[in-house]
Amino acid sequence: MEQTLKQFEMLIQEQLRRLQTLDKPKKDFSAMESVTVGIVPGDGIGAEIVPQAERVLNHFLKDELADGRVVLKPIDGLTIENRLARNQSVPSEVLAEIKTCDVLLKGPTTTPNGGSMESANVTLRRELDLYANVRPVVVPEENIDWIFYRENTEGEYVLGSRGIELPGMAVDFKVTTDAGTRRIARAAFDYARQNGKTRVTVVTKANIMKKTDGKFSAICREVAADYPEIATDECYVDIMTANLINPDIRSDFQVVLLPNLYGDIVTDEAAQIQGGVGTAGSANIGNQYAMFEAVHGSAPALMEAGLGEYANPSSILKATAMLLRHIGRSQAAQKLENALQICSAAPTGKADGPTAKEYTEKLLAML
Ligand code: IPM
Ligand code: MG
Questions:
Q1: CB of 269 closer than 6 A to ligand 1?
Q2: Per the structure, how many domains does the chain have?
Q3: Which of 37, 64, 108, 130 could form a disulfide with 286 if both were Cys (CB 3.0 to 4.6 A apart)?
């Protein structure tokens, strides 16, 4: 028991120290002479789809790459084999390489089942302080145009692999801070303001998670007061999952602001409404670094069946568009997004359809 209380005290102290580190200055890409984009293939189908995304970057950034305004930097070693061999979720030398970049394009990484090794995603989000997970979902024929701002470093994830086990009992932790909530809320409301959105919906379960979600809700309302032109409403996460499949009201949602775990769950639901998790892109944004990735996993079953080349690159290509916008290439981003909307017949993981490479070639020919 004494041991457990010591452990608890240590965790609380560590979180109080983290609180002091949350305010870093924002990197201004327009003022930078050169932007370094790290290319991290990850595991499984990552090796199939990331090279396709790289081709698209080469297409759009031809001039910038030629004169060094953008540099693509391949980063090896973020593989499940290397992570297991080193017993580190992100091996330290790989993390050091990653930290020399400004933004990352990252393929899916396998999370080992059981054990105590953390997901590489979670480690990177924490190490690079990527506090905003931004996930757009668009279904034009249903008038759906949603963008999710998921808090990406706190909540149930911040101590996710460091819960406490006692005989016959297990305890996990959820941590919500003022500063951590304020910065994600600002990101969501700023996005709304800059993009002519008129509504932000805050999702919590503050009726049950009184302290943590209660704080998230209160801070979001505080931030909302600075954006009087934007309507703010709050929705509990259970009813939100129902609302997203209610055709009478779902197209009214615009910007959705959520704590980490609810954001994880609700964005998979939303992606499925768009056509599956393989169709959604995801941006992880912090003040210093940003990481763009596919929402789906490494698809080991597809690799084992020898069908890796038929993996659908749509998700990583949508993330690539978000990357281009983030580094100030909005026009290229828009072109890529338009092409993705109209270039049908994406790979399905089956040998009777196009490969990731063939699909990307068709897409590039359209541009
Ligand atoms: C996601 C994923 C990750 C998460 C996993 C891979 C750790 O589901 O990006 O949504 O839970 O955040
Ligand atoms: Mg998820």
A1: no
A2: 1
A3: 130
**pLDDT (tens digit per residue) in 342-355:** 887 899 899 999 99
pLDDT recorded at residue 345: 84
Cβ–ligand 1 distance for 122 under 6 Å, the answer yes
pLDDT mean over 135-144 = 95
- Between the CA of 262 and the centroid of ligand 2 the distance, in Å, is 10
Mean pLDDT (whole number) for 264-285 = 92
CA distances from 172 to 17, 295, 358 (A): 20, 25, 46
Taking each helix axis as running N to C, give the angle between helix 314-326 and helix 46-60, from 0 to 180 degrees, rounded to the nearest 10.
Answer: 40
Instruction: Kindly state whether residue 297 falls inside one of the protein's structural domains.
Output: yes
Q: How far apart are CA 327 and CA 283, in angstroms?
A: 12
Whether 287 is in the pocket of ligand 1, judged by its Cβ within 6 Å, is no
Contact, 333 vs 356, CB < 8 A?
A: no
Tell me the CA–centroid distance for residue 58 and ligand 1, in Å. Answer: 28
100 in any annotated domain: yes
Residue that has been written with the tokens 């693509």 in this structure? 72
- Distance, CA 33 to ligand 2 centroid (Å)? 35
How distant, in Å, are the alpha carbons of 150, 209, 340 from that of 257? 6, 17, 26
Q: Which tens digits make up the pLDDT trace of 18-64?
A: 999 988 888 887 788 999 999 999 999 999 999 999 999 999 999 99
258 in ligand 1 pocket by Cβ < 6 Å?
no
Answer whether residue 324 is part of any domain: yes
- 218 has a pLDDT exceeding 90: yes
Q: Is residue 81 part of a domain?
A: yes
Range of the domain at 69: 32-130+286-367
For ligand 1, whether the C-beta of 111 sits within 6 Å is yes
CATH number of the domain bearing residue 80: 3.40.718.10
Q: Whose CA is nearest to atom 4 of ligand 1?
A: 264
Residue 101 has pLDDT above 80, yes or no: yes
**109 CA distance to ligand 1 centroid (A)?**
10
pLDDT of residue 259: 98
Q: Residue range 309-328: average pLDDT?
A: 95
